[in-house]
Structures are given as structure tokens and as C-alpha cells.
Amino acid sequence: MEIATRLSNEIARYMDLDTRQIQITARNMANIDTPGYRAVGMDFEGEMRRAMTGVDEIGGSAINPRIFDVDGLVVRPDGNNVSMDRESLNLAEAQLKFKTGVALLKREYTRVMDAIHADAK
Fold it and tell me: Cβ-count burial of 2 within 10 angstroms (0-12 exposed, 13-18 middle, 19+ buried)?
């Protein structure tokens, strides 16, 4: 039996996008010593907006967000532009978002379970 609400589905999309953000950050960190590697990123808020409204102008989805090269970063002599400080900040932000998603999902399921057991009280 599956218990899902509109809010729980939206939180799940939020957490899926955040997981993708963590994967992107991990990929950037893993390539910090790769000559010529360019950091990539994702517009989390824009992707979340698309996921919530169902509007998809280019054909992407919440599970497969648009990834782009990050401009404006300092390029080292080996052509790599990954900054561990920037990636660490991105990772900390993504972890905080994920924890928020877990807390919201837990609260939503508690609300649903309270509604199911309301007659028993």
C-alpha cells in the first residue's frame, strides 16, 4: 500500500533534485585534479519551479535537470576551474536542503498517520 499526498510527491521531487545537486557537486570535487575539467552546475530553483509547475520548455524533467558549465570561475594553468571552497559550500547547502526535505516528509507522513488514526483516539 502506498501512502502519497500531493505534498509528499512535491517533497520527493525536491529531494530528487537535491540528490542530483549533490551528485553534481561530488562530480566536480572528484575532478579537481583533472586537467581541463570545467565545473558544472544546475539551477536548483529554476528546476524546482519547473518541477512544481509542470512547465518544461526544453523537454527536461525533474529527474533529468539541465546541467551547464559554470562561468566566471578562476581557471588554473592546467585549464581546470573547480574550486574546492565553492564545491564545499554547495555541498553544505545541499545537505541542509536534504535534511529539510526529510523533516518536511516526516511531518507530512505524521499528519497522514494522525488522520488515519483519528477515529481510534
Answer: exposed
Degrees, nearest 5: CA angle 97-100-17: 45
Radius of gyration of the chain (CA): 18
Q: Is the model more confident about 50 or about 28?
A: 28
> 46-95 pLDDT, tens per residue?
998 888 886 544 444 446 789 999 999 999 999 999 999 999 999 999 99
Q: At what angle do helices 6-30 and 44-53 cross, to 10 degrees?
A: 150
E-only strand ranges, 23-121: 40-41, 68-69
Nearest to 47 by CA among 102, 113, 94: 94
The helix/strand/coil state of 69 is strand
3 near 111, Cβ under 8 Å? no
Amino acid at 13: R
